[in-house]
TrEMBL record, chain A:
This is Heme chaperone HemW. InterPro entries: Coproporphyrinogen-III_oxidase (IPR034505), Elp3/MiaA/NifB-like_rSAM (IPR006638), HemN_C (IPR010723), HemW-like (IPR004559), rSAM (IPR007197), rSAM_sf (IPR058240). Residues 15-247 form the Radical SAM core domain. It is found in: Cytoplasm. NCBIfam families: hemN_rel. Gene3D superfamilies: 3.30.750.200.
UniProtKB/TrEMBL annotation, chain B:
Residues 2-184 form the Tr-type G domain. One of its GO terms (molecular function) is translation elongation factor activity. PANTHER family: TRANSLATION FACTOR GUF1 HOMOLOG, CHLOROPLASTIC, TRANSLATION FACTOR GUF1-RELATED. The keyword rRNA-binding does not apply. This is Elongation factor 4. Required for accurate and efficient protein synthesis under certain stress conditions. May act as a fidelity factor of the translation reaction, by catalyzing a one-codon backward translocation of tRNAs on improperly translocated ribosomes. Back-translocation proceeds from a post-translocation (POST) complex to a pre-translocation (PRE) complex, thus giving elongation factor G a second chance to translocate the tRNAs correctly. Binds to ribosomes in a GTP-dependent manner. SUPFAM superfamilies: EF-G C-terminal domain-like, P-loop containing nucleoside triphosphate hydrolases, Translation proteins. Its EC number is 3.6.5.n1. The gene is lepA. It is found in: Cell membrane. GTP binds at residues 14-19, 131-134. Pfam families: EFG_C, GTP_EFTU, GTP_EFTU_D2, LepA_C. Keywords: Cell membrane, Elongation factor, GTP-binding, Hydrolase, Membrane, Nucleotide-binding, Protein biosynthesis. It catalyses: GTP + H2O = GDP + phosphate + H(+). It comes from Parachitinimonas caeni.
């Protein structure tokens, strides 16, 4: 797909410094696939092969080590799927194996995604003990009717209980919420926010429910609030959270001061990340090139591939032309945008590579910039796709 | 010469002309079976898809008749659409006979009748054929009666055939031999050859399909084209079988091709007469006329830097389409583009489609319009092909619009609906004639109304049964006004229309409401207004979109999100930025979707 691969040794292109490196670990199983979900998740019929999978993750990581010698790990994110289907002992075992092979910074943020079912929240305390220091709970809604409309298997009471237990064991935790759910009113969306706030989270992710291709909802669309109603909800949620002392720092993410998700921010700042586990994606920079990797998606295929020596299904060296857009796709999600020098640091290209798009964006009032930072304007955050198109 | 038969086929679209032609070629062994791609004579892709023959083509067939003699049958294919009536008349002028092919279940249609009348006027012998005779719905008796009533030719012994299933093919060829007269002409006289059609070939230049009337034509002959007085040296002559076969000469009565190193189609005009420089014929063959554009539209590249590419593409199309006219035009809203003249709406659509398909152009087309004659107060008479160029009303004495005479053939059940439609379109009835179960209506109609959506409307009110043929009649003054459209207070010249005052307010209102549906929501409110002069007559607003973001962009897999944005951007390819508003192609043609009161 790339037209000009970065020419190794043939150009003066080079990265002066490598970006911070994070680690993403994918757990591809769920009790049931949600109808809106387009992530790499598979129903765990007959349980998950816990030991085999942990062993495969470790082997998978080992194959990556030569690519990142000496680089410290700034954050770890265990996502899915439903990682909390795995036992705390399994997570403990995994983290021990990682520590033995990687230089994980002492202050590194280590996040686990968890579902709010009884089976899961009883393990929260042990996850904390295993060294996980941030929990992200997939609440989605506290309303039983809306939960069942989007095919979630937990109910409102379980959601509330999960938030309370998360609060009692983690000082740093996130709740995932969705709005513009089938039949949802503005008041109901705000009620979910209030309930979420009452458990004292440090971070909230509020996603507009969108119908993604290759999902059940895409084929059989439910009746959803219209664009204007959804936009009203978005505005009201933002106002409510800002009033509660949260910062709206990314398109769908809010945090208390100082509690940004380090791991996610590293994506948005075009940092590096290893991806291990079925279907995980990684981006790794070198002084002379930047690569993207994707691993086999089907759990069985992944396990076989690891056993055969490499889990990598595709690996691509990014071309110079791709970099400006990819950089903007990420950084323009952040309310604060990026410091101007970050562009050259992460892409190895002069800022002039963005000139045309930036000029258009400025004339359309989609960005604000001074000599230090380039950030999306309020308009630019609202019409982010329009802004990004200018860099395609 | 007595073993030559020159004939063409007159048939309505879908009545089986192309299939029948294929059968003849197959029957006479012109092509091996494996060479028969479906419907050989319609060679352009668009023709195959739409089932319309656009350019006349030909096949010279050797037929051994039942009398044991071998005859040279020259089949000259004719276009089957109202936009191409001049080309039809030239094809017929080259023939002594014509097969009138009528669908035995559907009966006679206006287009067929019009072409038949042309044939009869030119003294061409018309032989009736009933096609699709094997269909359960076939009613040969009724259709024969209809042919006799409407066309006025003897049809009791019409050949019954099914081109699709190969029934009656030989009978038709026998009828051609028996009924179509052999050509007459003076083989010794000075050369007179009629150009039936001409097209551009990348290797040999212009190829002309000709009918030699008198004399003969050979390579190395010095040729004189009588309308342009141009001289060219003949390089090659031959016939199509339908494969091209070189011959030593084309003789009086024969049909074939001539190649004479001509670079431009404009030098080989359909209907012109070719003679020798010496001895030259004194008079040309009758019937030649310069083809004039009837319908005009602006064609603009979506991206302004594609202007040169669009000009190159139009020039290439013109190589093979002498009836396409274009000249540069500048629109405040759309930038640099071309005002193009077409024979009719179908011709416009075909050109547009070919530009997009064969030349990969992204185009904005403005609503089609006709030519208006504007009589200025100082006595000057202007022709206006673009409504936005209409001079200031205070300086205009009168505006005249082209009027056509339309002949509509429709089953009795739908006469009322068709008359209502014609009245809505400001038509004046001239005649109404009952012919069996069909009625022939003759109306004078403003051509501007017909180029919009008349044909589609006619088909819909008659469930597809009505058929239409028309001829230009005259320019006539009427109370016409210019309707402007303003987008966010800016007048968009490419959206201006000339309409009748009586319907202007209604049209303006409907137009802006239709545009509101077609213009997607953007980052700000968009006001769409219709105005006559300084007077705003309608307004609609496209409310601003509230947000346009990707809610989730997760886990480092950005490739899908990138594809999504690329798709969204590609979707805007057919949008033109006017001021800061993006207007999609459909909105420029919104007037075509405005229904009548």
């Amino acid at each position: 797909m790339s037209t000009i691969a970065l020419p190794i040794g043939k150009s003066n292109w080079q990265l002066k410094a490598l970006p911070p490196l994070s680690l993403y670990i994918h757990f591809p199983w769920c009790v049931r696939k949600c109808p809106y979900c387009d992530f790499n998740s598979h129903e765990a019929r007959g349980g998950v092969p816990e030991d085999d999978y942990i062993a495969a993750l470790v082997t998978d990581l080992e194959s990556l080590l030569p690519l990142i010698w000496g680089r410290p790990i700034h954050s770890i994110f265990m996502g899915g799927g439903t990682p909390s289907l795995f036992s705390a002992q399994a997570m403990d075992q995994l983290l021990s194996a990682l520590r033995a092979r990687l230089k994980i910074l002492p202050e590194a943020e280590i996040t686990l995604e968890a579902n709010p079912g009884t089976f899961e929240y009883e393990k929260f305390r042990d996850y904390r003990a295993a060294g996980i220091n941030r929990l992200s709970v997939g609440i989605q809604s506290f309303d039983a009717g809306h939960l069942s409309a989007i095919g979630r298997i937990h109910n409102g009471d379980e959601a509330r209980r999960a938030a309370e237990i998360a609060a009692s064991h983690f000082d740093n935790f996130n709740l995932d919420l969705m709005f513009a759910l089938p039949g949802q009113t503005l008041q109901q969306a705000l009620a979910d926010i209030s309930t979420a706030l009452s458990s004292g989270p440090s971070h909230l992710s509020c996603y507009h429910l969108t119908l993604e291709p290759n999902t059940y909802f895409h084929r059989y669309p439910p009746e959803l609030p219209d664009d204007d109603a959804a936009a009203d909800m978005h505005d009201a949620i933002e106002a409510r959270l800002v009033e509660a002392g949260f910062i709206h720092y990314e398109t769908s993410a809010y945090c208390r001061p100082g509690k940004m998700s380090y791991h996610n921010r590293n994506y948005w700042e075009f940092g590096d990340y290893l991806g291990i586990g079925a279907g995980a994606h990684g981006k790794i920079s070198f002084p002379d090139r930047i690569i993207r990797q994707a691993r086999y998606k089907q759990p069985a295929a992944y396990l076989n591939a690891v056993a055969d020596g490499s889990a990598v299904q595709t690996e691509e060296t990014l071309s110079l032309e791709q970099l400006p857009f990819e950089f903007m796709l990420n950084t323009m999600r952040l309310a604060d945008g990026f410091p101007v020098e970050l562009f050259q640091e992460r892409t190895g290209l002069p800022l002039s590579a963005l000139n045309r798009g930036l000029q258009q964006a400025e004339s359309l009032g989609l960005i604000e910039r001074d000599h230090q930072t380039i950030r999306p304007s309020a308009q630019g955050r609202r019409y982010q796709n329009r802004l990004l198109e200018l860099f395609l | 010469m007595k073993h030559i038969r020159n004939f063409s086929i007159i048939a309505h679209i879908d009545h089986g002309k192309s299939t029948l032609a294929d059968r003849f070629i197959q029957f006479c062994g012109g092509l091996e079976l494996r060479e028969m791609s479906e419907q050989v004579l319609d060679s352009m892709d668009i023709e195959k898809e739409r089932g319309i023959t656009i350019k006349a083509q030909t096949a010279a067939l050797q037929y051994k008749a039942r009398d044991g003699e071998i005859y040279n049958l020259n089949l000259i294919d004719t276009p089957g659409h109202v936009d191409f009536s001049y080309e039809v008349s030239r094809s017929l002028a080259a023939c002594e006979g014509a097969l009138l092919v009528v669908d035995a279940s559907q009966g006679v249609e206006a287009q067929t009748v019009a072409n038949c009348y042309t044939a009869i006027e030119q003294g061409v012998e018309v032989v009736a054929v009933l096609n699709k005779i094997d269909l359960p719905a076939a009613e040969p008796e009724r259709v024969i009666e209809e042919i006799e009533d409407i066309v006025g030719i003897e049809a009791t012994d019409a050949v019954r055939a099914s081109a699709k299933n190969g029934i009656g093919i030989e009978d038709i060829l026998e009828a051609v031999v028996a009924k179509v007269p052999a050509p007459e002409g003076n083989p010794e006289g000075p050369l007179k050859a009629l150009i039936i059609d001409s097209w551009f070939d990348n290797y040999v230049g212009v190829v002309m399909l000709v009918r030699v009337v008198d004399g003969e034509i050979k390579p190395k002959d010095k040729l004189l084209f009588m309308s342009t007085k141009a001289q060219h040296l003949c390089e090659q002559v031959g016939v199509f079988t339908p494969k091209s076969m070189q011959r030593d000469a084309l003789k009086a009565g024969e049909v074939g091709f001539v190649i004479a190193g001509i670079k431009e189609l404009a030098s080989a005009k359909v209907g012109d007469t070719i003679t020798h420089v010496k001895p030259a014929a004194t008079d040309p063959l009758p019937g030649f006329k310069e083809v004039k554009s009837q319908v005009f539209a602006g064609l603009y590249p979506v991206e302004s830097h594609d202007y040169d590419a669009l000009r190159d593409s139009l020039e290439k199309l013109k190589l093979n389409d002498a009836s396409l006219h274009f000249e540069p035009e500048v629109s405040q809203a759309l930038g640099f583009g071309f005002r193009c003249g077409f024979l009719g709406l179908l011709h416009l659509e075909i050109v547009q489609e070919r530009l997009e398909r064969e030349f990969d152009m992204d185009l904005i087309t403005t609503a089609p319009t006709v030519v208006y004659q504007v009589l200025m107060k100082d006595g000057e008479l202007l022709e206006v092909e673009n409504p936005s160029r209409l001079p200031d009303l205070s300086k205009i004495d009168e505006i005249r619009e082209p009027i056509i005479t339309a002949t509509i053939l429709v089953p009795q059940d739908y006469v009322g609906a068709v008359m209502t439609l014609c009245n809505q379109k400001r038509g004046a009835q001239r005649n109404m004639q009952y012919m069996g179960r069909q009625v022939m209506l003759t109306y004078d109609l403003p051509m501007a109304e017909v180029v919009m959506d008349f044909f589609d409307k006619l088909k819909s009110v008659s469930r597809g049964y009505a058929s239409l043929d028309y001829d230009f009649k005259e320019f006539r003054a009427d109370d016409l006004v210019k309707l402007d459209v303003l987008v966010n207070s800016e007048r968009v010249d490419a959206l201006s229309l000339i309409v009748h005052r009586a319907t202007s307010i209604y049209r303006g209102r409907e137009l802006v409401s239709k545009m509101r549906e077609l213009i997607p929501r953007q980052m700000f409110d968009i006001a769409i207004q219709a105005a006559i002069g300084a007077h705003i007559i309608a307004r609609e607003t496209v409310k601003a979109m509230r947000k346009d973001v990707l809610a989730k962009c997760y886990g480092g897999d950005i490739t899908r999100k990138k594809k999504l944005l690329e798709k969204q951007k590609a979707g805007k390819k057919r949008m033109k930025q006017v001021g800061n508003v993006e207007i999609p192609q459909e909105a420029f043609l919104a007037i075509l979707q405005v229904s009548d009161k």
